[in-house]
Amino acid sequence: MTKLQATDNHFGQDVSASIEAEPDGVIALDPDLAALWEFAAPLLRVRNNDAHTLYAFGLASALLDAHPEADAAVVLPAIMLHDIGWSQVPPSEVLSAIAPGGGRPDLVLLHEKEGARLAAEILAECSYDALKIPAVLEIIDGHDSRREALSIEDAIVKDADKTWRLSPHGIDTVMDWFGLDRGQALRLCSQRVHSHLFTAEAKAMARALSALESVTEWPQRQRLLNAGGDESLTRI
Ligand SMILES: [Fe+2]
Ligand SMILES: [Fe+2]
After folding, report:
1. Of 21, 118, 144, 233, which shows the fewest CB atoms inside 10 Å?
2. Where are the domains of the chain?
3. What is the CATH number of domain 30-226?
4. What is the pTM of this model?
């Protein structure tokens, strides 16, 4: 169970006055992009693509911090809209498109093409900067199938999309998609991510995420979890 609300205070004092409102690294969603999300979300309901998109957006934002030369006005709408084309693929066929062992390349291409078509409509509807739209659509049309990156913006979108798989939400999602245990999902995602990234920053992020999930699988860590209680406190 994830602890969302603190109910115990082992320390015994209120520390909240020491917490900054907006420390470096904590990100918010810009209102223009929040408006875009309202159009995207209904098209992303299949197979957790909505939550996938938000987390991939967060990773793209972090990668943009490391690449000031990249155009955020291209990267951010592209990552937010990259998977809306799955809405045009029958839900029962979405997982067969990306399943290990071959998949359905025709459906992967279909979701890219349909995604670019729908994104053009949404961006026009939102009066998005027309000068940026061709680059956004070019990234969406090929985000999975194209082996090379056309630009730093394309590289960031591809890297954020793939690195998500190794995030806690990505591992949870892949476990559910294919009926895998956590260790199997970690190995599957690791073999499908590390050698396919473009930026040094995403490579480092992905290795960190794989390392943390690996430790969770170690018997030493599992024994602590199975023992229950406040192992983090008794350790000190
Ligand atoms: Fe995709
Ligand atoms: Fe994606």
Report:
1. 21
2. 30-226
3. 1.10.3210.10
4. 0.93
